[in-house]
Amino acid sequence: MLYGTGSIDGVAKRAPRVGSLDTEPLTLPGVELLRVTFEIARRDVETFFPPALQATLPPLVTWSVYRCKQGPLGPFCLAETQLNCRSGARTRTYLLGGVIDSEKAGVALSERWGFDPRIGEVRIHQGFDRVDATVVVERRRILEISMRDPVPLGPTAIHFAPSMHPSNTSKGLRLLQVDTTFQVHRSERGRASVDCFSADEWNEPRVRPTKSVAATFSTADLTLEKLRFMGRPEVNAFEGTEPVC
To answer: What's the rounded Cα separation, in Å, for the pair 75 and 30?
Structure first.
């Protein structure tokens, strides 16, 4: 296993301040989600992660773009770049960075679950034979991904792994385990493509996509669950995982 050897100082620099760890669940209805996964170049990949996490083999990057049309945070679109990984024996993703088009939603997601997205333009366009997503920050296009030639999937065909979010908490610097429940109403799978990815805009300039893996587009009721576990980033998950309360 490739245990992380990345700098803890680097993790700390981009970790938002999270308020109370005793947050309540939040349900967002009818969310549309495009996910595109690519293999990335393996060189030095263990340095992309803190010691608490392990790189997958092959190493993978996943881009997720959400469109929420209604709900308690109002309408918003959110884009994330995540690295696939393991925390101990469990499959996880590691949040590198995000962009959102609603300040209200961004603040709530950061203070409660450590998302910490920047403000920008995030768009999803659904056509007959493809779904496209673009992200623009300060007039710079930093991400453009697509799913092409979709075919239907069953509602339970997609696995959604919990995400690990660097956060400054009342107990110090931690990786919050963000568990999300998806009640999927519709999903499709297709060919993945990435036409633009500015890695340095997502907090890890060394990420280099090499080979497409999968793309999916789903509509689901999404629930961000109550925080249950977090980990100390400087030690492996078997030693550093602790309950939130």
So the answer is: 11
Which stretch of DSSP H or E encloses residue 143?
Answer: strand 140-153
Query: 146 pairs with which residues across the strands?
Result: 132, 193
Q: How far is CA 102 from the centre of its chain?
A: 17
**Domain carrying residue 186:** 2-243
C-alpha–C-alpha distance, residues 52 and 232, integer Å: 7
CA distance 40 to 60: 6
How many domains does one find in the chain?
1
Q: Give 198-215 pLDDT, tens digit per residue.
A: 999 999 999 999 999 999
CATH number at residue 194: 2.40.400.10
| Element (DSSP H or E) covering residue 111 | helix 103-113
Please list, in sequence order, all residues whose beta carbon lies within 8 angstroms of the beta carbon of residue 97, skipping any fewer than 6 positions away: 14, 80, 81, 116, 117, 118, 201, 202, 203, 204
pLDDT at residue number 2: 85
- Single-letter code of the amino acid located at 159: H
245 — pLDDT class (breaks 50, 70, 90): confident
